[in-house]
Amino acid sequence: MANALCQVPAVGQARAEYLRTSNFRTKRSLTSSARTLTRSKLEEHTQDARQLSHPPKIDYADLFSRGGAVGTSSSPPPLFLAPMEVLADSCFRRAFVQSIGGVDEACHEFIRIPDRYPPGAKLDKFAKHLVKNYDPYELSPTPLAAQIMGGSADLLADCTRELIAKGAPRVDLNCGCPAKCVTGKGAGSSLLKDPELVYKCVSAMVAALHDSLAG
To answer: Is 100 helix (H, G, I), strand (E, B) or coil?
Structure first.
């Protein structure tokens, strides 16, 4: 980090010197206190948002029609906050949304979906457990989409059904993660090797969506 900052004149050099000379334990304590305060404020906001009758929704047809070709519309193009594991946690999303003037939609970092149910597991309870950390009210009034990652069409469909029931405005399938610990299990970018499997997974998710809406 210090090396990267040293490449920026003046301010970067001063910051790098601070990083080299400051007491690490003090910095860690201050960071921890700030993060605790931020999470406390976030929890207060989320509790207030839950008083709404429904989670935030979005008209995607209207959103994607906005902006148009460059120079042909006065409306800005849609702005999405992508999911990033580890970095883009709830505190990051809240700070980002509040600091740049807002986004049209944010997306929760991916939820790992295993290839099979554990022996003896109750299907509905297991799916609920997998998506328990997703909260559609988190950024209200900004919609928060969900992203799931896996290679089992059946489990992806079950989790999609649970996410829709919780109020997710959109459920996204991760087909881009290149990490070996992910691709080695047939998920992430490894799905692109098998277009038929991608079709099967997405079709199952869409069917689950229609079932949820029909119910």
So the answer is: coil
Residue 19: the pLDDT is 41
Catalytic residue among 6, 159, 177, 181: 177
* Adjacent-strand bridge partners of 205: none
Whether this model's pTM surpasses 0.90: no
Q: Based on the residue annotation, tell me whether 177 is a catalytic residue of this protein.
A: yes
Interior/surface letters 172-202, b for 16+ CB within 10 angstroms, e for the rest: bbbeebeeeebbeeebbebbeeeeebbebbe
Conformational region of residue 94, where left means phi above 0, alpha means psi within -120 to 50, and beta covers everything else = alpha
Residue type, position 157, single letter: A
**CA distance readout (Å), 154 to 57, 110, 113:** 26, 18, 10
Mean pLDDT on 65-86: 75
Residue 141, pLDDT > 50, answer yes
Which residue did the predictor score with more confidence, 148 or 77?
148
Distance CA 75, CA 67 (A): 5
